[in-house]
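Technical note accompanying the year-one report. For the benefit of new consortium partners, we illustrate the data format agreed upon in the data management plan: each record pairs a sequence with a structure-token string. No post-processing was applied to the example shown here.
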Amino acid sequence: MNIRYLGTAAYEGVPSLFCECRVCRRSKEEGGRNLRSRSQALVDGQLLLDFNPDTVWHSQKYGLDWSNIRNCLITHSHSDHLYPEDVEIAAENYSNLHNTLHFYAAKDR
């Protein structure tokens, strides 16, 4: 099993947009691996874990092959794990790749 971490931060990312704490200041200064996008992973190049607002960026940065990604597991219902506005990009008006992307999520309590 191959797990590729695309993003490892929480909802606000690191550094957070409006934060000036020690961690965020240091992240801004040092850049590189200290800049962290929202949590997402890809398992065996086929199973996407979460579809967050950074998915487009992750796809561009890591060259994701969407012809192989058919399933997406949403780990929980927070907006940083499912960003449905970008799911629309898969529609015929925006894309010529028309594979079905299946979403799976647990029922909220």
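Partners are asked to follow this layout when depositing records. The mean pLDDT is 92.
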